[in-house]
Amino acid sequence: MHAHARAPHPLRQALKSRKDALLEHYSQHGKIDPLLRGLSETVDSIAAQAWHACEMPQQLALVAVGGYGRGELFPYSDVDILLLHPDALDESIASRLERFIGFMWDIGLEIGSSVRTVDQCLSEAEGDITIQTSLLEARFITGDRALFEQFEGRFKAALDPRAFFRGKQLEMRQRHAKYQDTPYSLEPNCKESPGGLRDLQTILWMTRAAGLGNSWDELYQRDLLTAREVKELRRNERLLKNVRARLHLLAQRRQDILVFDLQTPLAERFGIKPTAAKRASEQLMRRYYWAAKAVTQLNTILLLNVEARLFPQSSGITRVLNERFVEKQGMIEIADDDLYQRHPTAILETFLLYEQIVGPKGLSARTLRALYNARELMNVQWRADPENRRLFLQILQQTRGITHALRLMNQTSVLGRYLLSFRGVVGQMQHDLYHVYTVDQHILMVVRNIRRFTIAEHAHEYPFCSQLIANFDRPWVLIVAALFHDIAKGRGGDHSKLGMTDARRFCVKHGMDAEDTELVVWLVGQHLTMSQVAQKQDTTDPEVVRRFAEIVGNERYLTALYLLTVADIRGTSPKVWNAWKGKLLEDLYRITRQVLGGEQPDPHAQLKARKAEALSLLRLYTVPEHAHEALWDQLDVAYFLRNDAADIAWQTRHLSRFVNTPTPIVKGRPAPIGEGLQVFIYAPDQPDLFARICGYFERKGLSILDAKVHTTRHGYALDNFLITDPGAGTSYRDIINLVESELAQRLSSQSPLPEPNQGRLPRRSRTFPITPRVDLRADERGQYYLLSISANDRTGLLYAIARVLAQHRISVHAARINTLGERVEDIFLLDGRGLQDNRLQIALETELLETLEI
C-alpha cells in the first residue's frame, strides 16, 4: 500500500485562499490600503485560531509588533509577534510556545518571534531603540488582555519622548547616509532610502511616542500639518506603498530595492507604456523620484514642527535679518506667514539671503511650509518679473553658498518652478552606463565641482583647475553653463544642440551681456568636445591639436571648456574619473594654449627638446654618454613625439644594452600619475604580441587604461601599458617583480593563444545593453586604419578584441582604451598593409561584432 500524502492543515488552506483573494482583488482594483489591512486582519484571525488550536495557557498574551502591529502587512513581509508571559517559564509552557511557533511556520506564516516578560520588554527597549520602536506599535491579538494592558501602561510610563525623538533622528541620519543621502539613487530602496516609507513611519513613531497623534489626520487636528500637506502625504505614501507591494509580487519574495531588472516589468504593472523619447521604466522612476522628493520635503517640515513641540526654546528670535526675515534657532524664518503671497519676489530672496548671511544652517519649518504652499505663485508672471530675474542671477553670482542654495531650491521645488527646463530633468534617469545620478543631481554635482575649484580648502584636489579659475574673469558664467549643459537630456535629439537654445533664451532674458551669452551658449554646445578629443584622438598629431584650437578660438573659451569638462566628468560617477584622464585633458589644454598663443607645433623643435630632456635624465642615472644611441637609431620621430621625456629615459636605461635581445624584456614601475602600474614590453614583433600581452593582464584581473604600441626600425615591438587593479586591493610595488618575470616567460613560450574568458556582463549592462558598434576606416594619409569600438564593458573584452586582430595577422600600432563606467569606447590604430582588401575588412568587422555581442 502507498502512504497518502498528508493533506495540508485547514488553517494553511484558509490562509492561502484568503491571501489569494486579497491579491486578486488588488490586481483588479489597485487599492493598496484594503490589501495591507486585509493581509493583517487575515493573519490576526489565523494566528488567533492557531493559538486556540494549540491550547495555549490562559496567562499568556499574543501581541503583534512592528509593521504587523501597525496593522499593515505587505505581501511578503515578516509577521513579527511578541509572546508575552507573566513570569519565569516552566518547561511545559516553554514547550507549548515552541510547538505554537512551529505550528505557525507549518501553516505558512513566516514569523519573527520573541518571548518576553513585561520586565524583559522594558529592559531590552531601554537599551535598544529598534526594540523600543517595535514595541511602540504593539497590538493585542488574543490571550490575557490584562497582561497586555499592564505591559502597555508600563511601556508608556517608561518612554521618554524627547530621548526617543533624538534617538530616531540619529538613526534616520545614519540610515540616510547608508543610502548616499539622496532619494535619487538609480536603484533606490523604496522602504529605507531617503524619501521612502521608513521616513513616513519614523515621523508617526515620534508623534505617537510624544502623544501628538498616530495618524496624518490626528497631526492635522493638532496643527502639525495643513489640509493640503495631509493630502500630499497621503498621495505620495500611496504611490510608495503600491511600488513596494508590486515589487513583492513581481519578485515573489520580500523585495524593497527597485533594481534595474525589475523597473520595466514594474512599470508595466502600473500600466505605463514606453514612448518614443522615454522608456516605461524611466517614466515610473520619475514618478517615484517626485514622490520621494515630496516626502523628503514634508518630512523635513514635520520633523522641525515636532521638534519645536518637544523642545520649545525660550530664546525665540535670535536676530532680525531684515523686515521680511528673522533668524530663529539657527534657521532663516519668514516674519509673516503670508509673506510670499504679499511679496512673491521674497521666494528667491530667501535663497539669496541664505547665501549671504553667515550663521543660519537652513530654513525653518515655517519657511519650508510657506514655500511648499507658495508653489502656485511660481507661475508665468512670477518667472517674467524683472526683479525675480535679477535675484536669480544674483544667486548664481554669489561667492559662497551657491551649491547649498541650489540644492535647497531643488528640494523645495523652487528651482524647477523658476527654470521650467530644469523641472523637465528632475528625476530623469540616464541609461548611458556611466552616469550614476539622475540628470538634475548630476547638474548640481557639476555646479558643486566648479564651485570647489574656487575654494582654497579643495585646492589640493584640483590644483591646476584652482589656479586657472583664480585668474578667470566672472567665473559665475561657468555656473550658468553648468546649469544648462545637460538640461535637454531625455527630450530626444542632441541634448547639446537643444540645450543651446534654452541657454541663449535664459541669458537674453536675464540681461547678460553678448560676450558672456555667447560663451555660455558655446560651452553648452561643445561640452563633450574636449573629452572626446583628449580620450579618442591622437593629441601628439599637430593636425588634431590645430583643429581643436580652431574650435575653441581663444584662451578664455579653452579655459572655460577645460574647467567645465573636468567638473562634468567628475560629476558622472566616482568610477569614471582617474588621474590618467586628468593628464590627457591637461596635456591637451597646455598644447592648445600654446597654439592659440601663436606657437605653431614644430615637431622638429619638440623632438630636439624631448631628446635633450631625456638625455639629461639619463645622465642623472649615470648612463654612459653614448649608450642610448644604439636604441635611438632604431626609433622613429613618432616614438619621441608620443612619449614624454621621463618614459623615454626610463625605457632607454633598461634597453640600451639589449637592443637586439632575442628574449622579451618586461619592466614595470608604479604609474607616475595616479594609481596603477606602468609596464613596458620590448620583444621581437609578431602579429599576436598585443593579444598575448592583453591576455596575460586579463588572466591577472588587471585593467588596461592605456596602451602605446610602437615598432622599431629593426622589427621589435616597444609597447607601453598603463594598468590598474579594479579591485583596488593591490599594492602595485608588490606585484612588479611578478608581472616582469611572468609576462616575459609567457611571451617566450610560443603557445597558442588561449580562448578568451566569457566574462559576465555587469547586471546594469545586462538590463540596459547598448548596441555594440564597430567602425573601421582608413586614416587621412591611408597609412593606417582607425578601428573604433563601443560596447558594454566586461572582463576579458580587450583580450577578445586583440585575439580577433591577431588571428587576421593585423598589427596594432596604438590603442586608446577608454572605459566609461560600464561602457567602453576603445580606439585602435591598425597597420593598414593588409586592410585594403574589402573582404578582410568585412570579415574583421563581422567577427568583432560577434565577439562584442557575446
TrEMBL record:
The lineage of its organism: Bacteria, Pseudomonadati, Pseudomonadota, Betaproteobacteria, Burkholderiales. Belongs to the GlnD family. It comes from Pandoraea thiooxydans. Its EC number is 2.7.7.59, 3.1.4.-. Uridylyltransferase (UTase) activity is inhibited by glutamine, while glutamine activates uridylyl-removing (UR) activity. It comes from the Bacteria. Residues 1-320 are annotated as: Uridylyltransferase. Modifies, by uridylylation and deuridylylation, the PII regulatory proteins (GlnB and homologs), in response to the nitrogen status of the cell that GlnD senses through the glutamine level. Under low glutamine levels, catalyzes the conversion of the PII proteins and UTP to PII-UMP and PPi, while under higher glutamine levels, GlnD hydrolyzes PII-UMP to PII and UMP (deuridylylation). Thus, controls uridylylation state and activity of the PII proteins, and plays an important role in the regulation of nitrogen metabolism. Residues 747-766 are annotated as: Disordered. The gene is glnD. It holds the Pfam family HD. This is Bifunctional uridylyltransferase/uridylyl-removing enzyme. Residues 439-561 form the HD domain. It catalyses: [protein-PII]-uridylyl-L-tyrosine + H2O = [protein-PII]-L-tyrosine + UMP + H(+); [protein-PII]-L-tyrosine + UTP = [protein-PII]-uridylyl-L-tyrosine + diphosphate. Keywords: Hydrolase, Magnesium, Multifunctional enzyme, Nucleotidyltransferase, Repeat, Transferase. The keyword Repeat applies. Residues 678-757, 786-854 form the ACT domain. InterPro entries: ACT-like_dom_sf (IPR045865), ACT_dom (IPR002912), HD/PDEase_dom (IPR003607), HD_domain (IPR006674), NT_sf (IPR043519), PII_UdlTrfase/GS_AdlTrfase (IPR013546), Polymerase_NTP_transf_dom (IPR002934), UTase/UR (IPR010043). Has four distinct domains: an N-terminal nucleotidyltransferase (NT) domain responsible for UTase activity, a central HD domain that encodes UR activity, and two C-terminal ACT domains that seem to have a role in glutamine sensing. GO terms for molecular function: [protein-PII] uridylyltransferase activity; phosphoric diester hydrolase activity. GO terms for biological process: regulation of nitrogen utilization. Its cofactor is Mg(2+). The keyword Transferase applies.
